[in-house]
Amino acid sequence: MLSPQLQALISIELRQKEIERELAEAKQQVAVVQHRLDNIDRIDTIGDKRQRLNKMIQRYAHQNGIPFNHAWKDFVQAFNTAYRTNLELRRQNHINKTGKDISRPQFLEEMGLLDDAIRVADKMLNSKVK
pLDDT per residue over 27-77, tens digit each? Predict the structure, then answer.
């Protein structure tokens, strides 16, 4: 049996370690939020959602040092994974059905998927923050 004073000291030390762990987690969350805010500040939010998505993909391309068309390929792959779909096949079917060639952002808007697309682009932009 430990003395009451020793038990209290151990309890205080355990609580201190728990508080330090919680503080480290909070600091990490603040860093993630700050990074996201910085990215949002750098994106021109004036305009419609299609323009915003396009700017996010441009930002992703610049951030990763890849061409814009490669950034779109990464986006399509991420979107397909996130929503278990084939975006290019759906877009091609839509083009064949309507007879009008439309861009990815236009297609996403017509299908009501722009908000989902912006979420995917945001995740891509912020995936390196941990």
Answer: 998 988 887 777 665 555 567 888 889 988 998 999 899 999 999 999 999
Tokens of 11: 């309890």
Q: Give the per-residue pLDDT at 44.
A: 56
Question: Measuring CA to CA, which residue among 81, 85, 87, 74 is closest to residue 125?
Answer: 74
Query: What tokens were used for 109?
Result: 């808007």
Both structure tokens of 6: 């020793």
The sign of the CA dihedral 65, 56, 37, 26 is negative
Which whole number is the average pLDDT over 90-107? 93
Q: CA angle, 41 as apex, 37 and 47 as ends, to 5°? A: 125
Q: Considering only CA atoms, which of 69, 66, 72 is closest in space to residue 120?
A: 72
Q: Is residue 118 packed enough to be buried (19+ CB in 10 Å), middle (13-18) or exposed (0-12)?
A: middle
Q: How confident is the model at residue 129 (pLDDT cuts 50, 70, 90)?
A: very low
Residue 6 phi, psi dihedral angles, 5° rounding: -70, -40
